[in-house]
Amino acid sequence: MKIGVLAMQGAFAEHIGVLQRLEIEAVEVRKIDQLDDLAGLIIPGGESTTMLKLADIYRINETVKTKASAGLPVWGTCAGAILLADEVTNAGPHMPVSLGLMRMTVRRNAFGRQVDSFEVKLPVAGLGCEPFPAVFIRAPLIESVLPPAEVMARLGNGTIVAVRQGNLLATSFHPELSLDDRFHRYFIGMAETYLAQKRA
Ligand SMILES: NC(=O)CC[C@H](N)C(=O)O
């Protein structure tokens, strides 16, 4: 199975590294034809405005929307989660509209500046009892979700930081920067289900 990582900008190399450690063929996606034959796509962290603009120039946004709507598993981490949201409360004047695939409202840069980055042990529904070491870097928070989107994880104060909506997954934090690969294995599981359904 092949999993793509959008490689316009941001932390794509780290995701590729985790996938390769898990012996998954990982593809850097910069052109629309590289979206063919994927079992899943990861949209990494980085800078959401820049990433949206570049993906728009290379006409990737529309193709990702079409493929995700047809069932392709897509996982957005940090800036990638912002791209998946159907509403961004503080988008800024130069930010193109997001892909709008998930029924959730996100607030960018919700935890302060880059120096305020932090790591927490986060209980995550679906990943077992052991909390996940979640790394937050100038992260967005998820203000609200609407069905069919479902909350997978919240911080101790109730802030939503991970959401699943069918074939779509969003995390405010960076699982590719921790040594724990359970989130990547969870997404690979979604990709396996997708392939099995396609073959059936
Ligand atoms: N680590 C990240 O992906 C940060 C996201 C970035 N602050 C943005 O709003 O686009």
Automatic annotation (TrEMBL):
It catalyses: L-glutamine + H2O = L-glutamate + NH4(+); aldehydo-D-ribose 5-phosphate + D-glyceraldehyde 3-phosphate + L-glutamine = pyridoxal 5'-phosphate + L-glutamate + phosphate + 3 H2O + H(+). L-glutamine binds at residues 46-48, 108, 137-138. PROSITE patterns: GATASE_TYPE_1, PDXT_SNO_1, PDXT_SNO_2. Signal peptide: none annotated. Transmembrane segments: none annotated. Catalyzes the hydrolysis of glutamine to glutamate and ammonia as part of the biosynthesis of pyridoxal 5'-phosphate. The resulting ammonia molecule is channeled to the active site of PdxS. This is Pyridoxal 5'-phosphate synthase subunit PdxT.
